[in-house]
Amino acid sequence: MRERINYVWRLIGTGIAFASFGLGGVFLTLFVFTPIALLTRDEATRIRRVRRVIYHAFRFFVFMLRIGGIIDSRFTGEEKLDGLKGALIIANHPALLDTVFLISRMPEVQCVVKHQLWDNFYLGGVIRAAGYIRNDGDAMTLLAQCEKALGEGQNILIFPEGTRSVPGQPIRFQRGFANMAVHFNTPIQLVTITCDPPTLAKGSPWYAIPPRQSRFDISFDELLDISAELGHEPRSIKVRKLTRELEQYYVGKLCDE
Fold it and tell me: Domain of 89?
C-alpha cells in the first residue's frame, strides 16, 4: 500500500514538475529576462545576469525534486569546476533532465542547443535570452561561435551523443565535440551521469515513471589535456581517435556502475 501511494505521489509530482518547468520558462522570459534586457545595455552583462537566474532557478528545481521525493540526485567532484575556464564540458545523456542537473552546478556555462528548441514556446525565450549557441547544422558558424566563447574564457557544455541515449543500445558519439577540442586545443572536463532506475529516457513519456524513485548520480571526473593526450598526429586522425577513445571511456564507466 505504501509503495502504491508513493508511486501515485511521484506520478502527480512529476506532472506538476513538468508543468512548472514549462510555465516557469514563460514566466522568466516575460517577467525577469525582459526587464533585464531593458535595464542592461551591455550584452555580455545581460547574458551573465540571465544565466545566473537560470542557474538559481534550476538549482531550486533540482532541490524541490529531491525534497519532494520525486527524483533524487547526488553530485561528486564539483570542486573540479573551480577556476575552470575555456574548456569543453562533455557528458553522456541518459535522461531529459541532464542539462538541468548540470546547469544547476555551473552558473555561467555556455551551451550548444539543438535548433528545434529555439522556437519552443516554453523554452525558446530562455534559450535566446541566455545567448546559448544554436546548432542548426552549419559547422563553420558553430565553430566560430564556440571559438568566441572559449576565447572569452567560457566553458561550453556539449552532449557528444547529440541526443539522449537509447536504453539498451550502445553509446555512439558524434565527432563535433572532438573537432572543436582538436581545432582549439581545448581541455575537456569529463562528466558521467547515471540514473537508476532509468527515467525520462529517449522515447519515454513523462508519465512512464519507474516503480521506485530514480536517483541521478552526476560525477565530475578527470580533466583531459588534449595536447598531451593526442600528440602530433594529423587533425583528422586526432578527431577520430578522440571520439573513439572517449566513446569507449564512457562505455567502460557506465558498465562499471
Answer: 2-256
